[in-house]
C-alpha cells in the first residue's frame, strides 16, 4: 500500500507542476497579445522641430493618420492665451486639421487669416475657434509636450494639461 500511495502523491505533484507551468506560459502569452505592437507604440509619438518656422507659416504634418496644422502666428494675428502654444516666446496654433462638423480637412487662406471648410462653409480663425458656419466647436488640440524648441505630439505635457483644464 505504501508504494501505491507514494506513486499517487508523485503523480499528483507532477500533474500540479505541469498545470502550474502551463498556466504561467498561458498568462505570459495572453499579456503579449494585449500589449501594443512596437510599430504602434512608435507611431504614437511625433516630434516636430519648430525652430525653423517663419512667422505666418503653416506646416501640415501627419500624426496617427490625421493632419495636424501648426501655424506660427505673426504680429497681425490675434493671440489666444487659452489655445496658443508658446514655444521660445513665439505663439503657435496646434490643431487637428479635421472639421468638427463632418471631419473634412479645412484649407488655410493666409490673406483672410482663416481656415475654411469647403463642404459646408465652416470657418475657423487662426486659433482654431469656429467663427462661422455649422461646426459645433473649435478644432481639436492634439495631446502635446514641449521639449525646448520641439513639439512632441502624442504625449500629454504640463502645457497641454493646463490648456485642457482651462477649456
UniProtKB/TrEMBL annotation:
Record CDD domains: Rieske_cytochrome_bc1
Compartment annotation: Membrane
Ranges for domain Rieske: 63-153
Cofactor(s) required for function per UniProt: [2Fe-2S] cluster
Topology of the protein relative to the lipid bilayer: Single-pass membrane protein
Main location: membrane
UniProt keyword annotation of Iron present: yes
PROSITE patterns (alphabetical): RIESKE (PS51296)
InterPro entries named in the record: Rieske_2Fe-2S, Rieske_2Fe-2S_sf, Rieske_Fe-S_prot, Rieske_Fe-S_prot_C, Ubiquinol_cyt_c_Rdtase_Fe-S-su
Keywords: 2Fe-2S, Disulfide bond, Iron, Iron-sulfur, Membrane, Metal-binding, Transmembrane, Transmembrane helix
Transmembrane regions: 12-30
Pfam families: Rieske
Subunit structure as annotated in this protein's UniProt entry: The main subunits of complex b-c1 are: cytochrome b, cytochrome c1 and the Rieske protein.
UniProt cross-references to PANTHER family, sorted A to Z: CYTOCHROME B-C1 COMPLEX SUBUNIT RIESKE, MITOCHONDRIAL
Protein's name in the database: Ubiquinol-cytochrome c reductase iron-sulfur subunit
Amino acid at each position: 500500500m505504501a508504494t501505491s500511495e507514494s506513486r499517487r502523491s508523485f503523480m499528483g505533484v507532477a500533474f500540479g507542476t505541469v498545470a502550474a507551468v502551463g498556466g504561467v506560459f498561458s498568462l505570459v502569452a495572453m499579456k503579449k497579445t494585449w500589449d501594443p505592437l512596437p510599430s504602434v507604440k512608435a507611431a504614437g509619438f511625433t516630434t516636430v522641430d519648430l525652430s525653423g518656422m517663419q512667422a505666418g507659416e503653416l506646416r501640415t504634418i501627419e500624426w496617427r493618420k490625421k493632419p495636424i496644422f501648426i501655424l506660427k502666428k505673426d504680429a497681425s494675428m490675434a493671440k489666444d492665451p487659452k489655445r496658443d502654444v508658446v514655444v521660445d516666446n513665439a505663439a503657435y496654433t496646434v490643431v487637428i486639421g479635421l472639421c468638427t462638423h463632418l471631419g473634412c480637412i479645412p484649407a488655410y487662406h493666409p490673406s483672410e487669416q482663416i481656415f475654411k471648410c469647403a463642404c459646408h462653409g465652416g470657418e475657423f480663425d487662426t486659433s482654431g475657434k469656429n467663427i462661422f458656419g455649422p461646426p459645433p466647436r473649435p478644432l481639436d488640440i492634439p495631446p502635446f509636450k514641449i521639449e525646448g524648441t520641439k513639439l512632441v505630439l502624442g504625449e500629454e505635457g504640463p502645457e497641454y494639461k493646463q490648456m485642457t483644464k482651462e477649456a
